[in-house]
Structures are given as structure tokens and as C-alpha cells.
Amino acid sequence: VGPDTEFEFWRNRMAKFNSVAEQLKQSECRCVIGVVGQGKSKLFKRWKVVDNQITDSLNEAKDNVKYLSALERYTEPLYSGTPATA
Question: Most buried among 10, 21, 46, 53, using CB within 10 Å?
């Protein structure tokens, strides 16, 4: 447990949401979403909420990876260094 665990968590989360976002951009998915949207169904309203949540989660993960990456070079010695004697 430590900083590397946090870095890995956010990298994995970003990868998962990137994968979901890429799948949602595919033409088959866009076609289904378009058909559901034309029907003015309640399902489409729910879909918009879920789509926004996916986008928000992806952006959060990207931001956290970006900012945590800046700290990684400072935490690396915690794992690779040797204890100093006083």
C-alpha cells in the first residue's frame, strides 16, 4: 500500500473508461443510441445521464493520472532506495 497503489488505481480506471468511451463511439452503438433518441423514450433520458457520468468519470481519471504522474518521480525512491542510517 502506498503511492504506487494510488497511481495504478487511477491508471486502470482511466484505461477502463477509455475503453468504454471508444466502444460508445463505434457506429453500431451510435446507431442504436440514435434510434432510441428518435423514439423520445424514457430510456434515452436515462442514457444521457449515464453517458454524462461516463464522461465525468473519464475526465476525473485523466486529471488524476496527469497530476499524480507529476509526483511519481518523487515517490519512486520510496520503492527503489535503501534506508539511510543516521
Answer: 10
pTM reported for the whole predicted model = 0.79
pLDDT score, position 77: 81
- Give 48-59 pLDDT, tens digit per residue: 899 999 999 999
**CA of 70: how far to CAs of 22, 48, 74, in Å?**
26, 34, 8
27-66 core/surface letters (b: 16 or more CB in 10 A; e: else): eeeeeeeeeeeeeeeeeeeeeeeeeeeeeebbeebeebbe
- What does R_g of the chain's alpha carbons equal in angstroms? 20
Q: CA–CA separation, 80 vs 71, rounded Å?
A: 15
Place of cell 534506508: 83
> What is the rounded CA–CA span in Å between residue 35 and residue 38?
5
